[in-house]
Amino acid sequence: MGDENAILSEADARHLLRRAAFSATRKELLAAGIVGLTRGAAADKLLNYKVKTFKPGGNDQRKQHNSLLRYLLVTKNPVQEKLALFWHDHFGVGIAKLYAGSFDLAEKLMAAHNKLLRVLAKGNMKDFVKAVGKDPGMIEFLDSVRNEKFIPNENYARELLELFTVGVFDSAGNENYDQADIVQIARAFTGWGYVGAGKSFLDAGNHDFNSEFFATRGPKRIFENKGQILGGADFDVNGEGEAEIDTVVDIIFTHRDTDGENTVARRTARRLLEFYVGPDPDLAVIDAVIAASSFDVNFGIQALVRAIFCHDAFYATARPFGPGVTKSVKWPVDYAIGSMRLLGMNFAGAPKYIPGGSFTGIFTQMGNMGQTLLDPPSVFGWDWETSWLSSSTLLARYNFARDIVASRGGGRFRPDKVLDFATLTTTRQITDAVLDALDCGHNFTEADKLVCDAYLTDNSTITPDLANFDYVNEKLHGLFELVMKSPGFQVF
Q1: Pick from 420, 438, 421, 424: which is nearest to 479 by CA?
Q2: Count of CA atoms in the C-beta half-sphere (13 A) of 203
Q3: What is the pLDDT of residue 262?
Q4: Contact (Cβ atoms closer than 8 angstroms) between residue 341 and residue 17
Q5: How many domains does the chain have?
Q6: Residue 159 within a domain
Q7: Residue-wise pLDDT tens digits, 449-475
Q8: Could you tell me if residue 343 is inside a domain?
Q9: Does residue 446 sit within a domain?
Q10: Residue 338: which domain range?
Q11: 346 in a domain, yes or no?
């Protein structure tokens, strides 16, 4: 048991970098300087990163996707990027829908939206939601640009409640809002549009003002029946027009569930725990990280993530497979980028392909694994955990592993660069070194290691010899591939 004052062991530090970033080589672990720090100090060191404002480039979807993947591979700010990936899923804007609405601007809208996620990733959640509501990419994606005063469009209002803030049900299974709330919130967002990819505006002539619709739509009020706000809350109290969408968000962030707890805080904490720890977090853990961070009062994302990185539940998932141990399936982007970063590899050519095996570009590789960044399958984002794994997506992961170890030429796989051959003379030393290089030894039992040992010697019929090119090319490369295809490498 521990808290923010518990001292970080080397194993804990690797786990922290595994989940907060894209894993870490021994060199990166040393450079991070977090071994021996307290959990709190280590979390602070990682989360006090200098915000980078990268924006994916490219004039088509494939180029833009590849620009982002290349950045994830080389970034010095992996903690920022991992958190930005969470928000990319949470807000769910996808470029396919942007093409349908604004073909000439789709890439610019997507790039600007992705930059926004990166810049605000660790800031204030309430400010973040307000900014997303005014983001041209979101205005296009969820049809605020088509939300007119005479024919309101409810898409953004619905997802603002269902996905971005309170959720449909609270922790006790009770509804957090009703259809009347969606209808009313849609009124606040009527008339919003954008110019180009960077400037949103309110067309007052297309906005629902109370004086025009009071008789038919009633007062601008939400949560009359839900949210423990007696009599509801008026969202025109700060004036109508531009002010309304911020007022709506302010009110949503006061919503209380049937336990009397802040609903946005609980749902956001749950989602971040699912992302960084694993499925089905206990309500006690959710409430503990909220209390430790005062997230239900200040809504500071950095403080909430820090509390998660300090909690026992976070470090418990690093234990070996066994009863009561929760494991979380790696996202395809973690699998691909984490593997390449650990092995010191790079993409080749303009198509950004792995220079070996099938020579398939990363856009296709990622799509085959079930995750095309910048284009979630819907506003709900991706399905996580075991939904990442099917016969076809597992085959795609295996093909990626094959291409990695077959890689030659520029950006090639060089096991002599990640292992110290001079210190490895026994099969077990080689097995342990490969598992360490791939940062997955914690998921391998003694029985698993014996299988690796047997593979290296063909059940003792050959002697390991890392000075022998053919042995390295067949057996050592093969062990890396075998490990990358194993169950222990598919999970954190």
Answers
A1: 438
A2: 14
A3: 97
A4: no
A5: 1
A6: no
A7: 999 999 999 998 999 999 999 999 999
A8: yes
A9: yes
A10: 332-490
A11: yes
